[in-house]
Design brief:
By secondary structure, this protein is an alpha/beta fold. 44% of the residues lie in helices and 15% in strands. It contains four helices and five strands; from the N terminus they run αβαβααβββ. The protein has a three-stranded parallel sheet with strand order 2-1-3, with helices on both faces. A two-stranded antiparallel sheet has the order 4-5. The chain is globular. The model is unreliable at 1-8 and 14-25 (pLDDT under 50).
């Protein structure tokens, strides 16, 4: 279930970028994964975020912003980043790290297990 949701998150990230990764002449497109919000255990949310960043980084196609830097950016909001966080605010924060693709969402507990959206 979590694998399927991870794939959905990555597809959503590509769709948000216009269906393909944005091109940067001087390097790779930069991806910013905001820390996952939600009611799942913090350790699980952190590990899932780390896994998503590493999987994308291993492709060699993207420059992925590191987790600690993204946690610092998210803290500037003053509240957890969730699926309902205003896009404009996230774009402002993403601009601080020159991100071309922004990924955010939440991991919540359900009777079937933790789900990411």
């Amino acid at each position: 279930m979590v694998r399927m949701m991870v794939a959905a998150v990555l597809l959503a990230a590509c769709a948000a970028a216009g269906g393909e990764a944005p091109k940067i002449e001087e390097g790779k497109p930069r991806v910013a994964f905001f820390p996952l919000g939600g009611n799942a255990k913090e350790e699980l949310r952190d590990r899932t975020g780390f896994s998503l960043r590493m999987k994308l980084d291993r492709t060699g196609v993207y420059d992925v912003v590191d987790g600690p830097r993204m946690a610092e950016l998210a803290a500037e909001l003053g509240e957890p980043v969730t699926a309902s966080t205003p896009v404009e605010r996230l774009k402002e924060l993403g601009a601080l790290v020159r991100a071309d693709v922004l990924v955010w969402g939440e991991m919540s507990n359900t009777p079937q297990g933790a789900t990411v959206r």
